[in-house]
Write a structure and sequence with these properties.
279 residues, alpha/beta, 7-stranded parallel sheet
């Protein structure tokens, strides 16, 4: 594991002056916003819950003296990216953190309404694609910046009651890795942060709904959002993929699973490049 952290050059110089954090109203997203603001980077805060964003806005401005902007938007709806693009058109964005995409509930595919799954596809596929296309152009043109996609280990394989979640998260993994290899020589860092179970309001609500004891305990025995956000920012310059907790726990001298994915991807590209060109 690298000993470098997000300040390896100067986080504000590389990723500032503005960062956009999707899913900032709670959990890992809130922690990303706090830690980015602590580096002196201004924050655009996105989620459906405007009241929670405004509370965070006040906190960040008071604690860190940064500028903030709130955009209340449902990322699972059509037109979400148009709203975001209009809200940031005057800002010099250097960092995009997409921390959204949890399923509305755990359910077998045919037992949930189709419109719920279609919303999940928009959240994890359509919105991600549109946002990366439109904001990615700006990052590449400025020649520096970062894209951090908060994904899930669910994207590495299927699971009962999570067919659409694993499917859409699988798209994010492959999409993000492909952007890394396209943008890595253009000054834009890309990282897929693949996490497992994290102590979030979403997880606790699911535990409560499933009648799992201890859902309201102070410590439910899984990683805290503050730690996950710190790892993501630390590893952003070292993409394309960091798998938590496996990569964090890999003994010194052994190859991390995320590094293995990078090496495999570069090998695939070496095979493909002679036939499609590297332009």
């Amino acid at each position: 594991m690298s000993n470098n952290n997000a300040n390896v050059t100067n986080m504000k110089d590389r990723y500032g002056p503005w960062a956009l954090i999707a899913g900032a109203s709670h959990g890992v997203g809130t922690e990303f916003a706090r830690q980015v603001a602590a580096q002196g980077i201004n924050c655009v805060l996105l989620s459906r819950r405007e009241s929670a964003l405004k509370e965070l806005q006040t906190e960040l401005e008071n604690d860190h003296g940064v500028q903030t902007r709130v955009i209340a938007v449902d990322l699972s709806t059509e037109g979400a990216v148009d709203i975001i693009e209009a809200g940031v058109k005057d800002l010099d964005l250097g960092l995009v953190i997409y921390n959204a995409g949890a399923p509305p509930y755990a359910s077998e595919f045919l037992k949930a309404p189709l419109d719920a799954w279609q919303g999940l596809v928009r959240l994890n596929v359509t919105t991600v694609t549109d946002l990366c296309y439109k904001l990615g152009q700006r990052l590449v043109e400025r020649g520096r910046g970062g894209l951090l996609l908060v994904g899930s280990q669910a994207g590495l394989g299927g699971n009962k009651k999570y067919s659409m979640y694993t499917g859409t998260k699988g798209f994010m993994v492959n999409f993000g890795e492909s952007l890394w290899i396209e943008w890595k020589d253009k000054g834009v860092d890309v990282l897929n942060l693949l996490i497992s179970v994290v102590d979030s309001p979403t997880l606790r609500a699911q535990m409560k709904k499933s009648n799992i004891p201890g859902w309201d305990a102070p410590d439910i025995g899984v990683p805290k959002p503050v730690d996950i956000a710190a790892i993501g920012l630390r590893e952003l310059p070292h993409g394309p993929t960091f798998i938590h907790p496996e990569d964090e726990a890999t003994p010194a001298g052994e190859t991390r699973p995320g590094v293995t994915r990078r090496e495999s991807m570069l090998e695939r590209w070496a095979i493909t490049a002679p036939f499609v060109g590297d332009d």
